[in-house]
Amino acid sequence: MDQKVRDFVTEKVKEMVGADSCSMEARAAGQAWLDHVGTDGEAEETRRLAAELEMDIMPVEGLIAFAESDAGVQLFGPETAGNVAAHGRKLQASGAKYCDCPACAAAEAILEKKGELL
User: pTM, whole model, 2 decimals?
Assistant: First the structure.
């Protein structure tokens, strides 16, 4: 991986793991990757990070469905759940594929570099 890509991904991983919206699994994979940058374990942790992000990134359809579900209403509260669903529909109408929360936005940016990472 070239240094420019490594620096970009490092910045995005730090953004992701620092986001309140980041899942525990993505946070752990991101931290493991950061811990292994520049070591013999970097390549393996890069593969693990990419695989975890592919599982964790929230497609817009999933965001809407979750916000409108009982679990989403319970997590967010009725008003915020409605706002999240409406925001998801706006994202969908604009052609976005994924949620734009800080964790998902960083994950999407990282995954866009997947070909250069692996």
Answer: 0.92
